[in-house]
């Protein structure tokens, strides 16, 4: 059956576990492997999407708080624009926004395409009840974003993204490519090919890889790369040879660079 | 609701036993389910939890929590030794997730009563989730268990005033502001991105 494919290096041919210095993945999961890991978590381990999304979103907010503490903002308040896409990456963004609010930031959400599902409706309500504003339209100019926000969270597309970017996200990404404020991308810089990246696409300052860094992370050139989503059982890590470095103590994020 | 009290109350390097074993005793309702989630995170944090969960809830959510623990190779005891020395010798601490604030006197008599009778006599530290099991949620204990650490969920309950153990944590950072105001909870400031805060300095 299709599953983890061990690399054909001499050590692993015998089926033993490859021993490698921590922090040096043998290979970063490809899109289908990342999807397979997710499937196992839901089907075999019986995690709910809610559970993992909550932990993922919390990791993102925590990583942001470590790299961009409120005191570091040049805007008068620690304002953050969270741009949420139409799928799970957008859901991660909604959770992240809520935790950023708890951590003392002032997030604003732009969520143009909302799935008709209780999970996303619930997350939206939670944000609204915490007085997190939802913009009715996206700021038209990059300069306006730079003036209003000290940080932008890119929660548009994740590791399932394939094919062409549909509106309104094409225009949004074009605008984001022109801002000078730092961008923190959740899991995959939006618009990038999940394995090959996108040289002329978004260049975020921060990447928060969830579960494990994907192949696209090799093309990341920003300042901060964090790992989040500290919920992968040891057995799954071994099966997919993720070789993740250890998280510090009980932290839910690990700074990779 | 993740309960990462572990680093603060019982950091891994400080544990007396060679293996970082922890016994998590889970009751039949929500408090027990929280114990299951706690056990899973303890496993992720490299502790070695063992669960005792004699009366399993039929709630599908809680059954999934059980599956997650089983798939993470967390052992489930089939019975709790009545000989307390066995517990003292095998584990560094016990997490009491038996009964919470919703428990009424007389609810879940057995096996909870027997479990609590045993826990009363353990010599290793007990960490109680929300309410020390068996205590009256308002009046407190009358000869019940004496936990070392209390983790109040959302906000301390009335009976927390009777708590005499070493550390009292609140895990309530997820409460929206309007709920906090409505119930006049007046929570303390949480440091950094922590989701628990100690209410009293450790003795």
TrEMBL record, chain A:
Residues 1-29 are annotated as: Disordered. This is NAD(P)H-hydrate epimerase. Keywords: Isomerase, Metal-binding, Mitochondrion, NAD, NADP, Nucleotide-binding, Potassium, Secreted, Transit peptide. Residues 34-244 form the YjeF N-terminal domain. It catalyses: (6R)-NADHX = (6S)-NADHX; (6R)-NADPHX = (6S)-NADPHX. The keyword NAD applies. It comes from the Eukaryota. It is an enzyme of class 5 (isomerase). It comes from Scopus umbretta. GO terms for molecular function: metal ion binding; NAD(P)HX epimerase activity; nucleotide binding. Its EC number is 5.1.99.6. Pfam families: YjeF_N. Residues 18-27 have a biased composition (Low complexity). GO terms for cellular component: mitochondrion.
Automatic annotation (TrEMBL), chain B:
Gene3D superfamilies: YjeF N-terminal domain. InterPro entries: YjeF_N_dom, YjeF_N_dom_sf, YJEFN_prot_NAXE-like. One of its GO terms (molecular function) is NAD(P)HX epimerase activity. It comes from the Eukaryota. Residues 1-187 form the YjeF N-terminal domain. GO terms for cellular component: mitochondrion. NCBIfam families: yjeF_nterm (TIGR00197). This is ApoA-I-binding protein 2. It comes from Scopus umbretta. The gene is Yjefn3.
């Amino acid at each position: 059956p299709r599953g983890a494919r061990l690399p054909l290096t001499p050590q692993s041919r015998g089926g033993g576990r490859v021993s490698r210095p921590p922090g040096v993945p043998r290979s970063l999961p490809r899109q289908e492997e990342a999807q397979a890991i997710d499937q196992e978590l839901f089907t075999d381990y019986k995690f709910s999407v809610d559970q993992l999304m909550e932990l993922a979103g919390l990791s993102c907010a925590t990583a942001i708080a470590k790299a961009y503490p409120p005191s570091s903002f040049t805007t008068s308040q620690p304002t953050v624009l969270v741009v949420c896409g139409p799928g799970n990456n957008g859901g991660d963004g909604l959770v992240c926004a809520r935790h950023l609010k708890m951590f003392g930031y002032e997030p604003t959400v732009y969520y143009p395409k909302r799935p008709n599902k209780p999970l996303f409706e619930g997350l939206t309500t939670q944000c609204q009840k915490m007085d997190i504003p939802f913009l009715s339209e996206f700021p038209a100019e990059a300069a306006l974003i730079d003036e209003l926000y000290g940080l932008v969270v890119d929660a548009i597309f994740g590791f399932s993204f394939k094919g062409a970017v549909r509106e309104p996200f094409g225009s949004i990404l074009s605008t984001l490519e022109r801002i000078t404020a730092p961008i923190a991308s959740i899991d995959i810089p939006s618009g990038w090919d999940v394995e090959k990246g996108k040289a002329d696409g978004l260049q975020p300052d921060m990447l928060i890889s969830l579960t494990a860094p994907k192949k696209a992370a090799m093309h990341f050139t920003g300042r901060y790369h964090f790992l989040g989503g500290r919920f992968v059982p040891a057995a799954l890590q071994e099966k997919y040879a993720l070789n993740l470095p250890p998280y510090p103590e009980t932290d839910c994020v690990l700074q990779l660079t | 609701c993740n309960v990462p009290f572990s680093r603060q109350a019982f950091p891994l390097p400080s544990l007396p036993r060679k293996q970082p074993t922890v016994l998590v005793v889970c009751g039949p309702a929500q408090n027990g389910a929280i114990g299951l989630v706690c056990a899973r995170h303890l496993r992720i944090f490299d502790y070695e939890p063992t669960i005792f969960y004699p009366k399993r809830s039929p709630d599908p959510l809680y059954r999934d929590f059980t599956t997650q623990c089983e798939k993470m190779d967390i052992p489930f005891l089939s019975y709790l030794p009545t000989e307390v020395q066995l517990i003292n010798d095998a584990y560094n601490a016990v997490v009491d997730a038996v009964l919470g604030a919703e428990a009424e006197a007389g609810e879940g008599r057995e096996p909870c009563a027997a479990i609590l009778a045993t826990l009363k006599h353990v010599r290793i530290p007990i960490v109680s989730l929300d309410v020390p099991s068996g205590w009256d949620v308002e009046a407190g204990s009358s000869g019940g268990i004496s936990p070392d650490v209390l983790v109040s969920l959302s906000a301390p309950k009335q009976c927390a005033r009777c708590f005499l153990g070493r550390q009292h944590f609140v895990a309530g950072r997820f409460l929206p502001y309007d709920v906090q105001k409505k119930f006049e909870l007046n929570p303390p400031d949480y440091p950094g991105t922590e989701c628990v805060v100690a209410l009293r300095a450790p003795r």
